[in-house]
Specification:
Layout (H helix, E strand, L loop, with lengths): L4 E6 L1 H4 L16 H12 L6 E4 L7 H6 L1 H4 L7 E5 L2 H8 L10 H15 L4 E5 L7 H4 L2 H21 L3 E3 L2 H7 L5 H4 L8 H17 L7
C-alpha cells in the first residue's frame, strides 16, 4: 500500500509534547507513536507511509469523540490506533465535576460505531489502558485498580465486537516491574518514561504486525 496513513489517537501518553506545526523533526512528539513511526517508516520507506499523532493531553474518551471528525475521519487514515482511559479514571478518582458520570464505554462505542460507518476499511487498533502502583494511583490503589480493570475489560470487549486489534499492555507493565521498580516504567504510575514508551511500542508492533497489517493493501 502506497502512502498508507497511520493515525495515533489518545491523551498525553500519545501526545508526547508533539509539534503543532509541520516541522517533521517534532511532529510525532516523543511518545510510543514516535518509536513506531520511526521503525515502520524505515521498514516501509519505499511506500512513503504517513504517520499522524493527534493525541491531546488531558483527553477523555468523550473529548476524543467531540473532535473525531476533524482529528480522525477527515484524515482518512488506513489505520487508527487509540489509547485512552486514564483521564476518565483520574477525573472520577479526584471527584471532579467532569467525572460525575462515567462516559468511557459510551463515548468509546460512539467513536467506533461512527468510524466503522464512515471508514469501513480502516483497521482499528485498541490499546489497553494501564497503571502501576506508584504515584497518584498508589494513593488509592484499590479504587484505581478496580476502575482501570473495568476499562481494560471494556476495551477488550469492544475490540472483539468491532473487529479491532487489541494491544495488551497491563500484563507487560506488570511483568516489567520484575526488572525495575514501577516508577522506572511509569514515573507517576500513569505516564511512561522513555523505557515505558519503548515497552508500548514493542507490544504494539508485535501485536499489530502479528495480525498481518504489513501484508494488507
Amino acid at each position: 500500500m502506497t502512502n498508507r496513513v497511520i493515525l495515533f489517537q489518545g491523551d498525553s501518553i500519545t501526545d508526547g509534547a508533539r509539534g503543532r506545526n509541520d516541522d517533521p523533526n517534532h511532529i510525532l512528539g516523543h511518545s510510543y507513536a514516535y518509536i513506531i513511526g520511526a521503525r515502520l517508516g524505515y521498514v516501509w520507506a519505499e511506500q512513503k507511509p504517513v504517520f499522524i499523532n493527534r493525541g491531546i493531553s488531558g483527553n477523555r474518551a468523550s473529548d476524543l469523540y467531540a473532535r473525531w471528525n476533524e482529528d480522525a475521519i477527515s484524515l482518512n487514515p488506513n489505520l487508527i490506533s487509540i489509547l485512552i482511559g486514564v483521564n476518565d479514571a483520574w477525573r472520577i478518582m479526584n471527584r471532579e465535576p467532569s467525572g460525575v458520570t462515567d462516559r468511557f464505554e459510551r463515548a468509546y462505542r460512539h467513536i467506533l460505531e461512527e468510524t466503522k460507518q464512515v471508514l469501513p476499511e480502516a483497521q482499528l487498533v485498541l490499546c489497553e489502558p494501564f497503571i502501576l502502583n506508584t504515584g497518584a494511583p498508589s494513593q488509592n490503589w484499590p479504587a484505581w485498580s478496580e476502575r482501570i480493570t473495568a476499562y481494560r475489560q471494556t476495551v477488550k470487549a469492544l475490540s472483539e465486537q468491532f473487529g479491532a486489534v487489541f494491544v495488551p499492555l497491563q500484563a507487560a507493565f506488570d511483568e516489567a516491574c520484575s526488572r525495575a521498580d514501577a516508577a522506572f516504567w511509569l514515573w507517576d504510575g500513569v505516564h511512561p518514561t522513555a523505557a515505558g514508551h519503548e515497552l508500548i511500542a514493542k507490544q504494539w508492533l508485535q501485536t499489530v504486525l502479528g495480525n498481518g497489517y504489513a501484508d494488507k493493501g
